[in-house]
Amino acid sequence: MNIRVIANPVAGGGRGRVQAEALASTLECGGAEVELVLTQQAGDAEPAAARSGADVVVAVGGDGSINEVVNGLTENDSSLAILPMGTANVVARELRLPRDPAESAALILQGKTMPMDAGLRNGRRFLLGAGAGLDAAVAEAVSRVRGKKSSFWKWVGPSIRTALSYAFPAIRVTVDGELVSETAQYAVVGNCRYSAGVFPVTPRARIDDGLLDVCLFHDLNAVKLAWLAALVRNPSFIKRKDIVYRQGKQIAFAVAGETAAPLQVDGDPAGQIPADFEVEEKAVSVITPRANG
């Protein structure tokens, strides 16, 4: 088995390199041929993943690193494996992946895969999801202060300050051509269940159902946000009158008022709406314990 390990060396508070080296060593002991690639800057992982010659490409890092790798895999048919080393690790949580290099190596060498859908925006894949509104504003604020090393604590201050000052511009949303809201103030497209790190905002999302899930929040303010943060732990929150929940294959966010809402994709700032999304069914073959049934 030929395996390419692509690692962000500063992920996990600077532990990315050590964990990647431990993973590579364990894989070699298991009989694999391993190439270790350490990225130097944002964008390096995508071309490394695009090169042919690997049966498996392993992303060592957070959801942003995984996003780069999965976009590189449009050029080949390598399977995707992940050693989570980020702040939120949403995709890894969805796939039930271990954080220990030895456990990850054993899973990779076992080689069992399942197909995973991806979302598409402007021809680029995302595995986690996208959001317009508050979470995107938080992502922008964090990106300005976090430097090369990210951590949970670097999100706390910007999250609180942004929640208290955000103006909640209106968002127009269509799903498969149907207008579902012109007054949403926070809109989430989910390929996975979790958004904004640890919140199951799209609880009905499944990674292999050929659909994207959409959750829209209305009538928001800073006080209500704190209450909703606790409420979303219960999947039945989507039945509330101020929530609209849909599933579909094509989603569009547009400006509904005078101000455009910011946008994030897979946790990284992505400009502003308007934005269009569609599902790419069975986009990538992922190594996961879920493949065992």
Task: Provide an overview of this structure.
The protein is α+β, with helices and mostly antiparallel strands. The chain is globular, with a radius of gyration of 19 Å. It folds into 2 domains: 110 residues, 3-Layer(aba) Sandwich (Rossmann fold), CATH 3.40.50.10330; 153 residues, Tumour Suppressor Smad4. The protein is built from 9 helices and 16 strands.
Outline of this structure?
By secondary structure, the protein is an alpha+beta fold. Helices cover 28% and strands 33% of the residues.
Keywords:
293 residues; alpha+beta; Rossmann fold; Tumour Suppressor Smad4; 2 domains; 33% strand
List strands and helices in order, with pairings:
Elements: E1 2-7, H1 11-14, H2 16-29, E2 33-38, H3 45-50, E3 56-61, H4 63-72, E4 79-84, H5 90-95, H6 101-110, E5 113-121, E6 124-126, E7 129-132, H7 134-143, H8 153-165, E8 171-175, E9 178-184, E10 186-190, E11 212-217, H9 222-231, E12 243-248, E13 250-255, E14 262-265, E15 268-272, E16 275-287
Parallel strand pairs: 1-2, 1-3, 3-4
Antiparallel strand pairs: 5-6, 5-16, 7-10, 7-14, 8-9, 8-13, 10-11, 11-12, 13-16, 14-15
Helix pairs in contact: 2-6, 7-8
